[in-house]
Amino acid sequence: MNTKKRFWRCHVCNDIHFGVKPPEYCPTCGMRNAFVLSDRGEGVRLIQELKGKNVWHCAECRDLHLGAKPLSLCPSCGSKVKYGAMDREEAVRSTGDADSALDTSEEMLKVWDEFAERNGRIKVWDDRESVKQLSVGVLENVKSKGLRYCPCRVTTGDPDKDMKLICPCNFLAQQTWKEYGECWCGLFVKR
Questions:
Q1: What pLDDT was estimated at residue 2?
Q2: Does 100 fall in a domain?
Q3: Rounded alpha-carbon distances, angstroms, from residue 134 to 51, 64, 141, 147
């Protein structure tokens, strides 16, 4: 098991968790297995910019969670309700140089595969070459716009609206998922 703390992002509501493993349930939106591996750049930016959420830290292992509510159980150490509020800048400093960037197509493909496997209801599209092209689009968005925006969606320039376009986005709420069983760009499909 990996014991290095990493950033995780809820694809539904953008809660951020910094710990050894992600929470099973998101305390803000209630979604199960919604967290996808992220990197320090994305995690720090969301900690600094997301409004209406607080930073909480586990008193036992110092995991961090950015959300509307604290976790009831720490996924890393198993502590019950020992989360306290924390200043955002202090939270950023406490992550140090936590992890490297996810900046290659191969790393993105691995992250998406692990996310789909953990979720159980979804899978990554079988056309690996097309999936690789989608990862190139996501990585281009990181370079040009600073976050992993979905390659098939157009950002608006409104930070609050654009936060909903980070890949993977909340594709479960999209009409294309309900009608066709796939996200906008076809990256994730129903099993």
A1: 61
A2: no
A3: 29, 30, 11, 15
> How many domains is the chain built from?
2
Round to whole Å and give the CA distance between 73 and 84: 13
What lies within 8 Å, CB to CB, of 21 at 6+ separation is 2, 8, 75, 76
Work out whether strand 16-19 and strand 64-67 pair parallel, antiparallel, or are unpaired.
antiparallel
Q: Which tokens belong to 174?
A: 């999209």
Asked if residue 99 is part of any domain, the answer here is: no
The per-residue DSSP string of 44-104 comes to HHHHHH--S-EEEEETTT--EEEESS--SB-TTT--BS-EEEE-HHHHHHHTTT------S
Which residues constitute the domain of residue 169? 105-190
List the structure tokens of 42: 């994305």
Q: Which of 94, 121, 146 is the last residue of a domain?
A: 94
Handedness of CA 169, 43, 154, 157 (dihedral sign): positive
Mean pLDDT, the chain cut into blocks of 10 residues (191 residues total): 85 95 95 94 90 91 91 90 83 79 92 94 96 97 93 89 93 94 95 92
SS3 of residue 2 by DSSP: coil
pTM over 0.85: yes
